[in-house]
Amino acid sequence: MKIYDITPVPKPRQTRADKWKTRPAVMRYRAFCDEARLRKINLPESGAHITFVMPMPPSWSKKKREQFDGKPHKSKPDCDNMLKALMDALFDDDSGIWDCRITKLWGEKGQIIIRENG
Prior knowledge:
Mean pLDDT: 92
Largest sheet: 4 strands, mixed
CATH architecture: 2-Layer Sandwich
């Protein structure tokens, strides 16, 4: 199991103008991609269980934080867009990845946890 202390972000819907514009969502995505490459995140072609740990908002009370810590993250962003962002950051061509499982949880800090089966 590998734990990467990096806050996951979804892949934004981009336009041609995003090549020169600096929309916040696109800039967060680009920074995430750079960080993922820097940390040399390794994703096997099959059997991976990827857990995206989403950080809880600082505005939440201590009671609410304790209640949600480690529980399923059932709101946006969608887990498929998070996987898409990770795979696009790591691979020029991600067609070789043919099997993986995705989980999205609440946590104190953003993390990506990759477990390999086998």
